[in-house]
Amino acid sequence: MILIKLGGSAVTDKSRPLTARPEAIERLAREIASVPGKKIIIHGGGSFGHFRAKEYGLHMGFSGGAQREGICQVQADMRQLNGFVEGALRRAGMPVASIPAGAIAMFDGGKLTSFPSEVFAHYLEIGITPISFGDVVVDRSRCISICSGDDIMLRLAKDLKPEKGIFVASVDGIFPGFPPVEGQRPLPEVRRGDAVSFAGKDTDVTGSMRRKLELMLGMAENGCPVQILNGLVPGRLADALKGMDVIGTKVIA
């Protein structure tokens, strides 16, 4: 089984609120469907999640008032984006089942504490590809938290022991510095302790590339090799699913 994370930057235009990349979504769905084998698909929020989550301060916990509308709106927006991804996969010929994190995940103090990975395993057993996505979730101590798609990837990697994890981004991989300098090439491999600097700001309320790399390292250290690649380049995801060498970065223990 392979875990696939369709990053928010690959399936949406993160510079414009509520702006999907329909052509990219359809093509990525076809690439996933073209390669046999069991898969679990997670997608990020991009411009459907981060703008309004930041506007309402949902990543800081619940403080009442207008946040109630913000919680409902972000969940609705994420389900809209999920509908685009699910629809594309079904048109590509894949039977899929959507499992919203907001309906099943439990956080405490901003950390994921409960997540029923066995639900995903059961769908795989009956030949259905499960899909989940970043979402607003309940938190025992803060009332609400943001569960990122990367949080889900790490938990599924720990619980289900996949063959590998693939992160589909809008860049060619992990660079020595982020954001990368023009003309710079991605690192072929990254291990914990390697020098990677992060200087840029981002609207991503889940921590952007620095936290993503930390979670990728966690996956690798739990026995799930990880690679990150550019999903806006046609064919790259399909080639990676086939086990071919592609431009990108491998994150290893």
SSE diagram, text form:
Layout: E1 2-6, H1 8-11, H2 22-33, E2 39-43, H3 50-55, H4 67-91, E3 96-98, H5 101-104, E4 106-108, E5 111-114, H6 117-125, E6 129-133, E7 135-139, E8 143-147, H7 149-160, E9 164-169, E10 177-178, E11 189-190, E12 197-198, H8 208-221, E13 226-230, H9 236-241, E14 249-251
Parallel strand pairs: 1-2, 1-9, 2-6, 3-6, 4-7, 9-13, 10-12, 11-14
Antiparallel strand pairs: 4-5, 7-8, 13-14
Helix pairs in contact: 2-4, 7-8
Notes on the structure:
- The chain is α/β, with parallel strands linked by helices and 253 residues long.
- Helices cover 36% and strands 22% of the residues.
- The chain contains 9 helices and 14 strands.
- The strands form 3 sheets. It has an 8-stranded mixed beta sheet with strand order 3-6-2-1-9-13-14-11, with helices on both faces.
- A hairpin with a 3-residue loop joins strand 7 and strand 8.
- Helix 2 crosses helix 4 and helix 7 runs parallel beside helix 8.
- The longest helix has 25 residues.
- It starts with a strand and ends with a strand.
- The model has no long low-confidence stretch (mean pLDDT 94).
